[in-house]
Amino acid sequence: MTEPVLRLEAVRKSFGGTLVLRDVDLEVAPHTVTALIGASGSGKSTLLRCVNLLEEIDDGAVFLDGDEITDPRTDADLVRRRIGVVFQAYNLFPHMTVLENVTLAPRRVHRAGKERARERALELLARLGLQDKADAYPDRLSGGQQQRVAIVRALAVEPRLLLLDEITAALDPELVGEVLAVVRDLKDQGMTMVIATHEMGFAREVADQVCFLDGGAVLERGTPEEVFGEPRRARTQAFLARVLEAGRPVGRPTV
Amino acid sequence: MSNDSEVNDSEVDTDNAEAIGDRAGESARAPYRPSARRIERERYRKARTRRSVLIATASTLVTAVVLYLLVTGSPGWPRTRETFFNAHYAREALPEVLKGLWLNIRLLVVCGALVLVLGLVLAVARTLRGPVFFPVRALATAYVDFFRGLPLIICLLGVIFGVPALRLTGVTSDPVVLGGAALVLTYSAYVAEVFRAGIETVHPSQRAAARSLGLTNAQAMRYVVLPQAVRRVVPPLLNDLVSLQKDTGLVSIGGVVDAVYAAQIITGKSFNYTPYVVAGLVFVALTIPMTRLTDWVTARMNSRQGAI
């Protein structure tokens, strides 16, 4: 069996007295997509932040390509260079143009030449239909465009692993489609991704592995067919039923 | 007259409305004609605006007249006018005041630049994390606490008269240099706090985004946090620079002649206070363009970035 890109071993994390992640185990194989589903506050975002070392874990270990990255002796900056993150609120830098946002890390972190970084950025922007926005400032773009820029920014450093944290949660339904289409393309190109999402239809379609988190623990995991089709746990069934009621179909996505 | 202009205005409005309609792709349909409702609303708004302008003009005039009568009607007015608004002394004082002002301007430029640099360094030093930086952080905090609390005049006296008293070889006793140093000491403490406030207004998610791209803490500060922080604190920074500009006059306690001291010398000879008024107006004239310039720079940055 090939070595997983990402492996979590009994990861535990608490904020103050609240246990947010309780002994989470997870394995993400190369070129696969893992969807994390669960209610708000179930620990999805925290899990992603821990993987990217934006939060320090209390116990357990995280391995990236077999190397333990949660060892305090590892260089966190080196680890983050191998992981791309896209946030729910885009977090673009408002004082920089789209092109500057995208080329910042390649130029300052990876020491790419100005021209080289620019070419590569324009190429990526064109792939996501943003070529004419290169010189615009983020606040002039729609939410969907901003989120696609954020994805390009994360891709520009050629990450080993891409973490997507509820990237469509702040978008209106019409714009959700354009962002999800991008993620679908990335999957086809073999990008390894972990996606925290509320878009059940999308998770079902695109994920190779679905994890249902509840109260900081992985309550159920399996293929989309297993988790969505025949959930074993009562909690999972209840969650999926509530989502259905709220009008987010578990079947095919609407886009 | 007024009827004419009104007709013209509404014609212009109609044209605009049509232009907007065209852009929205409505040209294929019947050309847009503003409805009676819209015309009525616009007429009402115009009438309201005219009324507000009239009221403002009237109240300004009334206030001005009342103030004028109050001042000129006061029993001591002829004497006051002679002492504070004397054209002869104003003419005599202006060249001297301007000569003194040159010193204020030089001090402002040099000290202003040093204050901005030192203030920024102090602010960044206070935001450093990690136990290694504890001494740096503690020193910066102590510096800001001390010099922000110390009255400027005491600081000036201490530096201008205290440093030469040490009789250190190679250290200047020039009151301009020493006074300037004292101004930098005090003002950099103020400005450091302004910068620090700016740094803290940048949302943590910006730093998180920068770090997740692999930027080091220092790079995140340099490329992401500081550029945004500095933009936000331009107005309060200008406030401190204007304040500094006025306080440059205090170096005259070391015996050098600036604009205020030049005025004082003439007043001392003539017992006429007009030179003070001249000096005051010259300072005001200097700050107004500075304010307009920063307003313009800020507005330009904001319009480039879109709505904020």
Automatic annotation (TrEMBL), chain A:
<keyword id="KW-1003">Cell membrane</keyword>
<dbReference type="GO" id="GO:0005524">
    <property type="term" value="F:ATP binding"/>
</dbReference>
<dbReference type="Pfam" id="PF00005">
    <property type="entry name" value="ABC_tran"/>
</dbReference>
<dbReference type="InterPro" id="IPR030679">
    <property type="entry name" value="ABC_ATPase_HisP-typ"/>
</dbReference>
<protein>
    <submittedName>
        <fullName>ABC transporter</fullName>
    </submittedName>
</protein>
<dbReference type="InterPro" id="IPR027417">
    <property type="entry name" value="P-loop_NTPase"/>
</dbReference>
<keyword id="KW-0029">Amino-acid transport</keyword>
<dbReference type="InterPro" id="IPR003593">
    <property type="entry name" value="AAA+_ATPase"/>
</dbReference>
<keyword id="KW-0472">Membrane</keyword>
<keyword id="KW-0067">ATP-binding</keyword>
<keyword id="KW-0547">Nucleotide-binding</keyword>
<dbReference type="GO" id="GO:0016887">
    <property type="term" value="F:ATP hydrolysis activity"/>
</dbReference>
<dbReference type="InterPro" id="IPR050086">
    <property type="entry name" value="MetN_ABC_transporter-like"/>
</dbReference>
<dbReference type="InterPro" id="IPR003439">
    <property type="entry name" value="ABC_transporter-like_ATP-bd"/>
</dbReference>
<dbReference type="GO" id="GO:0005886">
    <property type="term" value="C:plasma membrane"/>
</dbReference>
<dbReference type="GO" id="GO:0015424">
    <property type="term" value="F:ABC-type amino acid transporter activity"/>
</dbReference>
<feature type="domain" description="ABC transporter">
    <location>
        <begin position="6"/>
        <end position="240"/>
    </location>
</feature>
<comment type="similarity">
    <text>Belongs to the ABC transporter superfamily.</text>
</comment>
<dbReference type="InterPro" id="IPR017871">
    <property type="entry name" value="ABC_transporter-like_CS"/>
</dbReference>
<keyword id="KW-0813">Transport</keyword>
